[in-house]
Amino acid sequence: MDRLLLLGDEAIAQAAIDAGLSGVFAYPGTPSTEITEYIQDSKQAKEAGIRSNWAANEKTAMEAALGMSYAGKRAMFCCKHVGINVAADPFMNSAITGANGGLIYVAADDPSMHSSQDEQDSRFYGDFAGIPVLEPSNQQEAYDMVHYGFELSEKYHTPVMMRITTRMAHSRAGVVRKDVRTQNKLSLPEKKNQFILLPVNAKVQYRDLIAKQEGFAASSENDGFNKYIEGTDKSMGIVACGIAYNYLMENYRGTKCPYPVLKISQYPMPTKLLNRLYEECDTVLVLEEGQPLYERLLQGLLNKGKQIKGRLDGSLPRVGELNPNAVGRALGLNVKEGFAIPDLVAPRPPKLCDGCPHIDSYKALNEAMKEYGEYKVFADIGCYTLGALPPLKAIYTTVDMGASITMAKGAAETDLRPAVAVIGDSTFTHSGMTGLLDCCVDNVPVTVMILDNGITGMTGSQKSSATGRIESICQGIGVEPEHIRVINPLSSHFEENVKVIKEELEYQGVSVIIPRRECIVWANKKRKMAKKA
Amino acid sequence: MKIDIILCGVGGMGALSSAAIISKAALSKGMYMKQAETHGMSQRGGDVQSHLRLSDEPISSDLIPEGECDIILSVEPMEALRYLPFLNRETGWIITNQNPFVNIPNYPDLDKVLAEVKKVKNHILFDADAIAKEVNNPKGTNMVVLGAASKYLKIDLESLEEAVRSNFARKGEAVIEANIAALRAGRAVADKM
């Protein structure tokens, strides 16, 4: 077959389609978004009837994926690393129920925080839940591992996590496809109580999960994704996880790495192979793209064994993603250097687009807040987070999806007045609605601005679950209809908008202001699409 | 044979579509390739960059090691300087448009920026916008720069033109021809030097 030029994300998507996927479930999040988008745009997926609409959030997405697996079909869930936090409840508990149809959870981590608020390493979650984790080192392996992952999942009736990082997700390479497999037929779980996690059953299921560990470990030792590569210089052994293996090999281009290497792409860690490396070598260097999870385990709390090198002893940078040079230095090699960046080079931070409706929303808000002073606006995750930067400097917090409303609530339950929350439409239906319910139940004076641009903007114009529903959701939750105010964020409406915001800031109850104007990027895209049609 | 290229610019200037075109051409030649890019926040007027690696042998790292990049191909002069740590000090080329894209208040003095580019021994610094306009493709600056770089890409111009055809196939013959014209005009600049 021909080589297809695919992003890591796309390789995963194409593999899932080819492996008989019946549904993908996801909420957009960099760097995972392109997996679901690829399936949404795939003719092959459409013909196969693969469901692929965006979910309201990662928790609803993962639960729906679990439901599809329950019905015997192959399902995939995708998110960025912090999405696993949102889906942590079904994640942990589906490890205990196990799966029926093949079930893969893809977590796309973002070390160096290219577009994230932290660099948490999803392999911790895999270890925490006790399920197999696959960490491909290249696009072809990512493609192959999706096929393998579904088989592994069905063999052990377990969800399988696939962990990738930004450089895998957003890097293209040639990929060779496998044969297309037909989708599973509908089939209910054979084990009657598998999915009823009443304590009486959960205890049985949990023991069952513990019992599966031996099989998971054997798969890691024997299924070929983890390899022991011989080396002549036993002064050091190297454990290279995921794409860190590539950075290692880059340093020995055209030659052979003199040290024994354990290439790791599947967890639980293959302890037999690891033990061999440890026994044979004087020291061990651990290369992990992410946090030093296995370095720390190998070192132990007291660090009394052989010398373990990596991020903890300063051989590698403690934070951020790896690269060939950092790994080269850890190997003690003479690493090349380029030129220094001239001092005059100025940073070019991302900013809100020209014509963005958020700019007008913030200008009006800033004007209305003038008399109240700074540090009273709590915001959320999306394009509008850029409102924290000059010249707008309109917001003072951004923590996690939905935290604007609940943090404003908690602050308002002191004497902080006014407490304002700024949240996007998609983030509101993702995780803002329940917080708003808390506000209404406690009748706390907060002013919630739901910036409705009709799309999930930051990740590149994905359909928002909120579109057309915001007012009725707010009313249903209990916001008084006269305190649900829709405004038009345009400079020509500035005075009027300031007036509305001021009125609601004075109101000592829950109010919602909805600045509604289409995302400028999305509006342009739509115009182009209409032109084409 | 290997060639490592950093393509850079500001979101929306076409740096990533140049990367896609080189990739397609390389793949059609049966070369190994890897192309890493930054998505997400950088789309919003921020800097964008792509690491593109081509070789006749399998490639390990998605990222180009510092000090080993053969060509920095930029549609904006200050952006070209941002990736200097990657450039091979002896043999690396900077090929860049000379016109600044000013969307920040503290954009440095242009003469100083251009002087920094000229400090690199191998450079092509030229007005790609003007050439794009000359061939009636004012949006084709990225193609002009790509054309200028093509001389050093170790991929023949015909293969690049084929890749342009394939990349813009959906946009019709006029767009394809306009981009090929820009590509050729850029190449002519490099050939004259």
Chain-wise SSE layout:
The complex is a heterodimer of chains A (533) and B (193).
Chain A: E1 3-7, H1 8-18, E2 21-26, H2 33-41, H3 43-47, H4 58-70, E3 74-80, H5 81-86, H6 88-97, E4 103-109, H7 123-129, E5 133-134, H8 139-156, E6 160-165, H9 166-169, E7 171-176, H10 199-222, E8 227-229, E9 236-241, H11 244-250, E10 261-264, E11 266-267, H12 271-280, E12 283-287, H13 293-299, E13 307-309, H14 324-330, H15 357-369, E14 377-378, H16 403-412, E15 419-424, H17 425-442, E16 446-451, H18 470-477, E17 484-487, H19 494-506, E18 511-515, H20 520-532
Parallel strand pairs in A: 2-3, 3-4, 4-6, 5-6, 9-10, 9-12, 12-13, 14-15, 15-16, 16-18, 17-18
Antiparallel strand pairs in A: 1-7, 5-11, 8-10
Chain B: E1 2-10, H1 15-28, E2 32-37, E3 47-55, E4 71-74, H2 77-82, E5 93-97, H3 110-119, E6 122-126, H4 128-134, H5 141-150, H6 157-167, H7 173-192
Parallel strand pairs in B: 1-4, 4-5, 5-6
Antiparallel strand pairs in B: 1-3, 2-3
Helix pairs in contact in B: 1-6, 4-5, 5-7, 6-7
What percentage of residues of chain B falls in helices of 4 or more residues?
40-55%
**What is the SS-derived class of chain B?**
alpha/beta
What amount of the residues of chain A lies in strands? 15-25%
Task: Report how far the terminal alpha carbons of chain B are from each other.
Answer: 24 Å
Largest sheet of chain A: 6 strands, mixed
Q: Taking all residues together, what is the mean pLDDT of chain B?
A: 93
**CA(first)-CA(last) distance of chain A:** 33 Å
**How many strand elements of chain A?**
18
Residues in helices of chain A, as a percent range = 25-40%
Give the low-confidence spans of chain B: none
Structural class of chain A: alpha/beta
Would you identify the regions of chain A where 5 or more consecutive residues have pLDDT less than 50?
Answer: none
Mean pLDDT of chain A: 97
How would you portray this structure in words?
The complex is a heterodimer of chains A (533) and B (193). Chain A has 20 helices and 18 strands. Chain A is α/β, with parallel strands linked by helices and 533 residues long. In chain A, helix 1 crosses helix 2, helix 1 packs across helix 8 (139-156) and helix 17 (425-442) packs parallel to helix 18 (470-477). The mean pLDDT of chain A is 97. By secondary structure, chain B is of the alpha/beta class. Chain B has helices at residues 15-28, 77-82, 110-119, 128-134, 141-150, 157-167, 173-192, and strands at 2-10, 32-37, 47-55, 71-74, 93-97, 122-126. Chain B has a six-stranded mixed β-sheet, sandwiched between helices. In chain B, helix 1 (15-28) crosses helix 6, helix 4 (128-134) crosses helix 5 and helix 5 crosses helix 7 (173-192). The mean pLDDT of chain B is 93. Chains A and B meet through helix 9, strand 7, helix 11 and helix 14 of A and helix 1, strand 2, helix 2 and helix 3 of B.
